[in-house]
């Protein structure tokens, strides 16, 4: 099955429904053969952007380039784009074979070509023995494979997936995630998928774009967005983060003073690239903190805060604590080992922040 690795570029794309802006000056470059995720909450504009790429809606300004050619005015069926919808959109009265063959029949390809291509597509998704079944006789995971086969059989330049795993149970989602990734690697097909599930994006995509309120917040690898979020929204949406509002009040070569709202002054080692004086948000991840009993000696490299446990959850590989420090509640995750006794709600504890892991965000 031949595939063409296409690039996609959005240049200053804006779209509004009436007076309501949905996409605002989106600039994005997706490389040939890349597995790319559009990640964001409901209403962020991610599905609108995917449908815009497919040609189902139209931007009011900007350019949409595939391999450097602006396709803004090209109708959907001539874009060379394949889309798998959230509900799969299979025809229930047709066999699996006929569902997959549909696009080739519409193109009036020869019977031999259809037989060869449908057979290859079904083999790729592991359904070569299911051609004569109807979609209603298949599981959710198998229906999704049929939808994928129907899309890849037309050899699109771009594969678009709209919340591809949301209709599956958790175990099947993980399995299909791996299958999707392997299929994409096998085909080398430039693939763009929409999801609100950060774990799905982080485990699958080569890179991702985070959208909020129609604005592209940040683009990068999962590790890049997790470790170096550009702003408060990305820090809080990609993974879990503690976000302390405050002000950087003093800075010399070695130390930095951060006045945290509801918590007080923290004196921290200055990072290699220190923030500007003024309002900032201090962000750090729950697993980057250490929790110990009140009064216990702590690692001198950490900044220690006294608090009280508000809640404790056992989550298997780790325990999650919500700890009240001053007027602020912080989340702390600790790895679990057999025999470790959890802190009870109400227990006095100390939390140790690793300054090297903290990030200062300007917004």
- Architecture (CATH level 2) name of the largest domain: 3-Layer(aba) Sandwich
* Helicity range: 10-25%
Overall mean confidence score, pLDDT? 91
CATH superfamily of the largest domain: P-loop containing nucleotide triphosphate hydrolases
Question: Can you walk me through this structure?
Answer:
By secondary structure, the chain is of the alpha+beta class. The protein has 2 domains: 8-235, P-loop containing nucleotide triphosphate hydrolases (Rossmann fold, 3-Layer(aba) Sandwich), CATH 3.40.50; 240-361, Nucleic acid-binding proteins (OB fold (Dihydrolipoamide Acetyltransferase, E2P)). The protein has 8 helices and 20 strands. It has a 6-stranded mixed beta sheet with strand order 6-7-8-3-9-10, sandwiched between helices. α2 (96-106) packs across α3 (111-124), α2 packs parallel to α4 and α3 (111-124) crosses α4. The longest helix has 18 residues, at 170-187. The radius of gyration is 25 Å and the shape is elongated. The mean pLDDT is 91.
């Amino acid at each position: 099955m031949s595939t063409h690795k296409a690039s996609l570029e959005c240049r200053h794309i804006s779209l509004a429904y009436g007076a309501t802006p949905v996409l605002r000056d989106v600039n994005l470059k997706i490389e040939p053969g890349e597995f790319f995720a559009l990640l964001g909450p409901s209403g962020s504009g991610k599905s609108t952007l995917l449908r815009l790429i497919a040609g189902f809606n139209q931007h009011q300004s900007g350019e949409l380039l595939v391999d450097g050619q602006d396709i803004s005015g090209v109708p959907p069926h001539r874009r060379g784009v394949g889309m798998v919808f959230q509900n799969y959109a299979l025809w229930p009265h047709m066999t699996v074979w006929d569902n997959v063959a549909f696009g080739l029949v519409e193109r009036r390809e020869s019977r031999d070509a259809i037989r060869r291509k449908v057979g290859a597509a079904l083999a790729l998704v592991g359904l070569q023995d299911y051609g004569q079944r109807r979609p209603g006789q298949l599981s959710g995971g198998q229906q999704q494979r049929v939808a994928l086969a129907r899309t890849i059989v037309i050899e699109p330049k771009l594969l678009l997936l709209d919340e591809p795993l949301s209709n599956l149970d958790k175990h099947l989602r993980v399995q299909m995630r791996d299958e999707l990734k392997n299929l994409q690697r096998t085909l080398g097909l430039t693939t763009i998928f929409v999801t609100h599930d950060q774990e799905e994006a982080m485990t699958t995509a080569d890179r991702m774009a985070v959208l909020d309120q129609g604005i592209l917040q940040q683009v990068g690898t999962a590790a890049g967005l997790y470790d170096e979020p550009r702003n408060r929204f990305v820090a809080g949406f990609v993974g879990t983060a503690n976000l302390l509002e405050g002000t950087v009040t003093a800075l010399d070569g070695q130390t930095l003073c951060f006045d945290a709202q509801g918590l007080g002054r923290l004196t921290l080692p200055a990072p290699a690239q220190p923030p500007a004086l003024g309002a900032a948000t201090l962000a750090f991840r729950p697993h980057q903190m250490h929790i110990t009993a009140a009064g216990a000696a702590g690692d001198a490299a950490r900044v220690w805060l006294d608090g009280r446990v508000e809640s404790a959850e056992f989550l298997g590989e780790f325990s999650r604590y919500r700890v009240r420090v001053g007027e602020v509640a912080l989340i702390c995750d600790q790895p679990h080992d057999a025999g470790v006794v959890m802190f009870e709600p109400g227990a006095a504890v100390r939390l140790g922040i690793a300054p090297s892991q903290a990030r200062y965000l300007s917004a």
